[in-house]
Amino acid sequence: MSFRARHLLGIEHIAPDEITTLLDLAETYVDLNRSTDKHDNALQGLTQINMFFENSTRTQASFELAGKRLGADVMNMHMQASSVKKGETLIDTALTLNAMHPDLLVVRHPDSGAVNLLAQKVNCAVLNAGDGRHEHPTQALLDALTIRRAKGRLHRLTVAICGDIAHSRVARSNIWLLGKMENRVRLVGPPTLMPSGAADWGVEVYDDMKEGLKDADVVMMLRLQKERMDGAFIPSEREYFHRYGLDAAKLDNAKEDAIVMHPGPMNRGVEIDGTIADDINRSVIQDQVEMGVAVRMAAMKLLADNLKAARSAPKEVAV
Amino acid sequence: MSALLFKNARLIDPETGTDSVGTLAVRDGKIAGPTGMDDATVIDCDGKCLAPGIVDIGVKVSEPGERHKESFRSAGLAAAAGGVTTMVTRPDTTPAIDTPEVLEFVRRRANEASPVRVLPMAALTRGRQGREMAEIGFLMDAGAVAFTDCDSVITDTKVFTRCMTYATSLGALVIAHPQEPILSAGAAATSGKFASLKGLPAVSPMAERMGLDRDIAVVEMTGARYHADQITTARALRRLERARSVGLDITAGVSIHHLTLNELDVGDFRTFFKVKPPLRSEDDRLAAVEAVASGLIDVISSMHTPQDEESKRLPFAEAASGAVGLETLLPAAMRLVHNGHIDLPTLWRALSLAPSKRLGLDTGRLKAGAPADLVLFDPDAPFVMDRAKLRSKSKNTPFDEARMEGRVLGTWVGGAPVFPD
């Protein structure tokens, strides 16, 4: 068991044993985070820069807390408000920051692939905190940890991912992860919000909630991403809630002990009924937030270890 | 002008469909037939292929406006090195080539700087805006060989119909980019399993058929001479076939990239593989190759589109489209031969004879009296493509580090050597 990756750009390129290694380490951080002295020195002396080219409160706070609890020096940069407005390219911004010798770069960007591009130009570990509709790997990892703790395993489960799949990087990372760990994945949503070709991903596609939720162990709701929509995707929020919003009647089709998840922030009354979201017997939404910090601590610790190993390895001398 | 005698050449003649070893004489810039005069300079071809030079429809030379990306000099040198003896250039420059004055500038620059022939196309509408017709008559008088708004689709069908009607009265060839423009707005990839997984903005391949359907209807209405710049999907090919079978004057091209690459080549957001229309599925690629072999697709182009590093080193959706292709067209096309999809005379029909015929040129043939625009190449010579060595000012090729076979050994335009220089 080991974690070999240099960056965490997506779940696509990491292996099942790396996922397990990371989740196992995250478990220890869950315990640490619940204790009174929430401090560890794993990232002592390292500099972590959070670069968010897209608004975020929750993810950024989670990464910031994760870094601070492990002793890193953490800096937050809100890129919408800075040099991007002055016309600087992504690459130049990356090179500028790189010159400040960060060790961990946490990046969120509205374009798919932007974080991959940036990772090619810097010599530190890069964590993707969400790029366009592509991937959001730490979200999938925190979801995995939440499921593993609630269900006691992370394989042979039926997971229904419901709602706005088309615009969701959370869905894509989860499809990769749940598939790699050998689960049965269903995608449920209106056909306008279902990505083209999704049926070829090794998942089952449904446009009816009751059928899609039947006997599911996990019901993962997605936020309706109104800000990413550029045309007619759904007729109205009330019709969407009627047909695809998670309420008690629809949830009845899932297994009796099915858990309900949501990556947040929620649109109550649009994709999820408030009472379901708050039902402590079904909803693990608050656990997801808690696991988020632990998973991000684990990811940064493992990447930092690899970074330190790479830096102390004897360098090849050019002749 | 001196005489040349190419001996021991494997002559590729797309007009007769032959591929045979023989001798070819050149005199006064024209092909003279199989026997030469005593005073001719003898070139021993050592059994290598001698074919008519490539006529490349749709080359972008970034003059005027972006000479740092490509000039007539750099494009001409690249063309010569790639066996392209005629560049049919695009008007999607800055400003667009939409007046006789700009066209005259282009012709002057081409004459003084390019070692190969340059035939300019002009915009069909002013500024390629799709609103007002360009001065088609004046532009023809000034030397425009065809009219196109390039990848900018004329959304207003009324304007498009009038342009086509007017062009018909002058016998002008209109080249269009078949695409439903609203459906494909903002797309950077072809929709499907791969693009969805990567989260890329994508368009259904059906948008090409929808665009072609409209254009075919307008051709039927107006009787215009029409050429589709690139047909890249199986579903659009079926419509093309039907339109041809009822006798409409429609021809079609395809870029070498759509014949040799597919959507998966984009991999992890490699922007050098971002072209317009986006790369297609493997099934569509094979359908296009098949259509070239059968003659349904008439023309293969490089769709040479220089882009500098800055416009490509961006997130995929924001990066510029297009790839350079003048120097890689021949070795990339040889992949189709080496894979057994197509033979050399058929390939040269698409690279040289068909584009010549469509533009009313007498190039593309090896018969006596045709211009001695020739390329001598070794079809099997292997090499690893190194983009730094390209003669184009822009190095945005998707074939960087690719293993290729097929090297140009010499290029002649009107009997004069232009490569090696």
Outline the fold blueprint.
The complex is a heterodimer of chains A (319) and B (421).
Chain A: H1 16-34, E1 47-52, H2 58-69, E2 73-78, H3 90-98, E3 104-109, H4 114-119, E4 125-131, H5 137-151, E5 158-162, H6 169-180, E6 184-188, E7 204-206, H7 209-213, E8 218-221, H8 237-244, H9 248-251, E9 259-261, H10 274-277, H11 285-312
Helix pairs in contact in A: 1-5, 1-11, 2-11, 5-6, 5-11
Chain B: E1 4-13, E2 18-27, E3 30-33, E4 41-44, E5 49-52, E6 54-59, H1 72-81, E7 84-89, H2 100-113, E8 117-120, H3 136-141, E9 147-148, H4 157-170, E10 173-176, E11 189-190, H5 193-198, E12 202-203, H6 206-222, E13 225-228, H7 234-245, E14 250-255, H8 256-260, H9 282-294, E15 299-301, H10 309-312, H11 329-338, H12 344-358, E16 374-384, E17 403-413, E18 416-419
Parallel strand pairs in B: 1-4, 1-5, 6-7, 7-8, 9-10, 10-13, 11-12, 13-14, 14-15
Antiparallel strand pairs in B: 1-2, 2-3, 5-16, 16-17, 17-18
Helix pairs in contact in B: 4-6, 6-7
Strand order of the largest sheet of chain A: 7-6-5-8-9
User: Which segments of chain A are poorly predicted (pLDDT under 50) over 5 or more consecutive residues?
Assistant: none
Q: How many domain regions of chain B?
A: 1
Count of individual helical segments of chain B? 12
In the CATH hierarchy, the architecture of chain B is: Alpha-Beta Barrel
Identify the CATH homologous superfamily of the largest domain in chain A. Aspartate/ornithine carbamoyltransferase
Instruction: Quote the CATH topology of chain B.
Output: TIM Barrel
Biggest sheet overview of chain A: 5 strands, parallel
Which CATH class of the largest domain in chain A? Alpha Beta
The H-and-E topology of chain B, N to C, reads as EEEEEEHEHEHEHEEHEHEHEHHEHHHEEE
Total beta strands of chain A: 9
Indicate the percent of residues in helices of chain B. 25-40%
Protein structure class of chain B: alpha/beta
EC number (chain A): 2.1.3.2
GO molecular function (chain A): amino acid binding; aspartate carbamoyltransferase activity
Binding site for L-aspartate (chain A): 86, 169, 223
Organism (chain A): Boseongicola aestuarii
